[in-house]
Fold these 2 entries.
Entry 1:
Amino acid sequence: MNITINGNDHTLEQIETIEDMLAQLGLGEKLVIVEQNRVIIDRGAYGQTVVRDHDTFEIVHFVGGG
Amino acid sequence: MLKIGEKTFDSRLLLGTGKYTDATVQQKAIDASASQILTFAVRRLDIFDKQQANFLESLDLTKYDLLPNTAGAKTAEEAVRLAKLARASGMCDMVKVEVIGCDKTLLPDPIETLRASEELLKEGFIVLPYTSDDVVLARRLEELGCHAIMPAASPIGSGQGILNPLHLQFIIEQTTVPVIVDAGIGSPTDVAYAMELGADGVLLNSAVAHAQDPVKMARAMRLAVEAGRLGYEAGRIEKKQYAVASSPTSGLIR
């Protein structure tokens, strides 16, 4: 499956949901927020939200700032 | 007590989490500041470099009230997007609206700040806009329903302190929601001055994070907030042109 994450193209196999995607990226334990095709996904819904070919994702997190 | 929206806080010092070079120092500085509200930013995660240092991850964020900023936004739309992303964490409903209109001075874009604040209020956020010391803009932001007004003392990270105490005083006098002086603070003097002017709180980052001893400076800032607030509440004496003796002028030995 070809998807775009944070502006870069990626090919991920054997994933169905955002939860799968994050696990495969090694982000399962991290506090991240996901936007799918410009729609923010509720963190509780990662396990039910299906990833489709050519989806575009933003994966963001909190960093130090003032 | 500082009251923002429906929440009350014992501490009137809000602390930024940027620019620290050591996670342990940051945690100790936060402890020394006794701050209950921490600010931070929302950024893309580098999914190829998961080991990148992110000191925010070493903090127990559940112990604080979180004030994400919209830093990086140059338009209202970008600010709203960042605020919504932050809220999707499920950890915060406050947002520091920060829409920069000038890269060199980092001064806020007043029109985009106003637009973003209006939209975020409609979306149910607790909205704290970072603004210049423009008195009329501060009033317009309050009229929109903003939950606090956060005028800059001087440009972000400049450490120049309070450049226009008159305008800050005007804003403080006219505003019924909390006024939190944000940006440009350099030293405890600046903090105490802001609080003596009647500010309800101070938000700072660089002044602690870049101090030679951040932990000691964090404590100094906490004490300055308390000293300035007490001084404001106590009511200072009038300034007089000439001396007025403190000791009795009668009963002198001749």
Entry 2:
Amino acid sequence: MSLADKHRPDRNPGDPVAAAAFAESYLAYETLTDRVRRAEYDRGLLESTAIPSDGVVRRYPIQFSASAGEYFRIWIVNLALTVLTLGIYSAWAKVRKKRYFYGHTKIDGVGFEYRAAPMGILKGRLIAFAALAAYAVSGEISSWLEAAFVIGFVFALPWFLVRSLAFNAYNSTYRNVCFQFRGKYSDALKLVLVGGFLLIVTLGLAFPYVRARFARFAASGHQYGTAQFELPSLARAFYAIYGRWLGMVLVLILVPALFGVLAGVSSKAGWPSGMMLAVGIVAGSIVVYAYIVLWLGYLKSRTTNLVWNHLAIGQTQPRMPASSPGHGAHAVPDARVRFESRLRARELAQLYLVNAAAIVVTLGLAIPWAVVRSARYRIQSLSLLVAGDLDEIAAAEASSVGATGDEVGELAGFDFGF
Amino acid sequence: MVAFDADYYDGKTSRRHPVRAHAEDGNLRLAGPALSLAVPIAQVIADPPMAGTRRILRLPGGASLQTDDDMAVTSLWRGANPIQGWVHRLERRWMFAAAALVVVAVFSWWCVVFGLPLAAQSVAGFVPAALERKLGDQVMSTLDQSHCAASALSAGRQEELYKAFGVLTSASGHGGGYTYRLQLRACRAFGPNAFALPGGTIVLTDEMAKLAQNDAQIQAVLAHEIGHVHHRHGLRMALQAGGLAALFATLAGDAASITSLAVALPTALLQSSYSRDFEDEADAHAFEHLKAHGLSTKHFADIMARMEAFRSRETGSEKSSGKSATGLDRVLDYLSSHPATARRIERALANQ
């Protein structure tokens, strides 16, 4: 039995000493086994974000209680209403589906809430649709107008990004305290311009760096109540992941290429080539699809784990001694939260493959089942390590955010991994 | 009196206060270990119900209550959330889910078979011909940069072809508001071919001019292309393809990333089916057009037969082992964007 096992909270219910010891030994274990974190620990990076050992540390697995049957009914009823209203109802459908998933995602038995008003989402969708239509028509009318649209898009994209993050955060609440996104448009614009420039100049080699910057921008802009999210710079770690991924891709391409050469040689030796060709095409595409899914599983699991495992809440405002007055009226948040994400590449790839197969075989009827299954895996791989008490996070003042950004972001299919 | 257990959150902190709520005299009284307050029920908003999740009540001032007692909330806030409450009742029964499935299936089928072609046709009617011309010019310049060179036919031969084309487009009644222009090009990659660009430009390849035995056969081909322009097939195809993409995006929605590959195949199949319909329409137009100009549709049948012969010569010479590929050929035929040549020849002869 490892040190962490001995102090596991479920073996020592209600024992704060054991919980703290667990968190400490667990973090030590994780730091030693995760090469990236070990390197950072050696450089003194982790020290600042580690959970302090003086408080009580509790571990909260995130639970997911949705069921495929329930969601199937919600999905099909809302889809039918969407097509019957020629898409107008889609905003309501989105709210209902999100409410279902939020409500069934629980920490400590308490579910999240999604509070967006469908009307705001509908307006956002109409604006997004109008912009896309204007862009499509502009290309037919004159190439100058199209170029103007493209330049305008470069400047609008960060605005939509910031708006959609803010909209989504503002409408997400837990324990009646909402999330907020305070990232600035100017910073997002700088990211898009500099990131785009670097990607072009380096022929894509800067991608892991840009990705890390985006992840940091998106994560560090968030607040839960007054508690600030904080993500360190992860460019190095992203490079490590993408480097290994590239190695995998090269190996997996070279091996089948070799087989292809062998097959070519043997078919010259007199095998029925038409049949061989058909079998080869079918088998080849299945193998290629499986490879692609494996790569995706690797990338997705590693990058997601990386970001979650370095994310912290309540870190920016340093803990002030109780005797220091004059630092604002609100209490300094005492709660410190870290996350633990344990996605596995192979499990994720298997999930993707089974989902795709099920969806194809059932002509799409398995979509709700697949969606619930994916969400369950992703959510249940995540835990919170809380130093202090979930009860002790203060709410911040609220501000209303329109839905336009969110809808444009969704329509164009932007996914920054959050 | 209705009473229920709930968790109270003040909206300022994340602290949970377990309370007992009593409804009496139009007030909701909350009582807990560290809390006691009363709120007029009329000022409390009940969030719409959602399967398997707790009911949420919004109190004035940003506080909220969460409770598992759906019955109590439903009885106290009857008639709140008419739309989402009604949808929730639909979502709870398998019978309604089955009905919704039928609705979605029938609607999708209707959209693909009738709705999209109809919508594309009527939308295409609103697009000005000048805009179509512009689109066609863009395609032409792209072709000239990539695949096509100036025609290598002699000046005299070119003159004859322009003349044959002029005969087809001079008489009124078949123009449909377009100015038709013939462009002669040498496009090796396309072989003997002709194609219509939106707005009235029709491209004829040198290879096609050489394949035809006489000018009447070329006129038959050109009449078919005029049919494409007249019925605005290029524009309608683009619109229908866009509509299909939107429909599948709506249907797959949630799982778009998983299904993109699975959706590509049915989309391609349906698009070729649309394309075959357009070819039939252009053929029908060509038959009428030829007859109106006193030309026999037999020429259409002849050039079709010659093209088919040319194609099988081409593929025959490329295939190293002909016999085992017939199964694959049949599949490719099914995926083809053009109707079977034999059927087209039959129709041309029947339309004389």
